[in-house]
TrEMBL record:
Alphabetical list of InterPro entries matching this protein: TM_Fragile-X-F-assoc
Domain of life from the UniProt record: Eukaryota
Lipid biosynthesis is among the record's keywords: no
PANTHER family: TRANSMEMBRANE FRAGILE-X-F-ASSOCIATED PROTEIN
A Pfam family reported for this protein in Swiss-Prot or TrEMBL: Tmemb_185A
Alphabetically ordered keywords of this record: Membrane, Transmembrane, Transmembrane helix
Identification of the protein by name: Protein binding protein
Sequence intervals crossing the membrane: 21-38, 107-125
Length: 154
C-alpha cells in the first residue's frame, strides 16, 4: 500500500515537472519567435507568434486551477483581486496588440494599453487594501513579527 502511494506521488511529481517544462519551453519559443520576427528573419503573422504565448497561458492556468486553493491566514478575509484579473487582462492586451501589429491600425495604442492600465490600478488598490489591513487599530499596536505573519505568501 505504501509503495503504491509513493509511486502515485512520484508520478504526480513527474507530471508537474513535465507541465513546468512545457510552460518554460513555450515561453522560450515565444521569445525566440519574437526576436526572429523583430529581426525580419521570419515572416509568420503576429497571431502565430503570440499563439505560443497563449498556449503558455493555458498551461499555466491548467496548473494553477488544478491545485487546491490555499486557506486564508488567520484574521484575513480578503484575497488579492489582481491575481484573478491578471490573466484575462494580459490576454486582452496581447489580443489588442496583435490586432495593432498586423498592420490594420484600427485600434489606437491608447486602447491597446488600456488593459495594462486597468491591471496596474487593480494592483495599486490591492496594495492599499493590504497596507490598511496591516495597520493597527486605535488601541492596539502591531509588532514586526505580526506584520510578517499577516502578509500573503506568494
Amino acid at each position: 500500500m505504501l509503495i503504491q502511494r509513493g509511486a502515485r506521488m512520484s508520478w504526480r511529481r513527474v507530471a508537474k515537472s513535465l507541465q513546468a517544462l512545457v510552460a518554460h519551453g513555450l515561453l522560450f519559443s515565444f521569445t525566440l519567435l519574437l526576436v526572429l520576427k523583430l529581426d525580419h528573419a521570419l515572416s509568420y503573422s503576429w497571431w502565430t507568434i503570440f499563439g505560443t504565448l497563449w498556449l503558455f497561458h493555458m498551461v499555466v492556468a491548467r496548473g494553477r486551477f488544478s491545485l487546491p486553493a490555499p486557506s486564508a491566514p488567520h484574521n484575513r478575509h480578503w484575497a488579492p483581486s489582481h491575481s484573478i484579473l491578471a490573466t484575462p487582462l494580459l490576454i486582452a492586451f496581447e489580443l489588442l496588440l496583435c490586432i495593432h501589429l498586423e498592420g490594420s491600425y484600427v485600434v489606437n495604442l491608447k486602447i491597446v494599453f488600456l488593459p495594462l492600465v486597468v491591471f496596474e490600478v487593480a494592483i495599486l488598490i490591492d496594495n492599499v487594501r493590504m497596507c490598511r489591513a496591516l495597520m493597527p487599530g486605535d488601541e492596539e499596536s502591531l509588532s514586526d513579527e505580526a506584520i510578517w505573519e499577516t502578509l500573503p505568501v506568494s
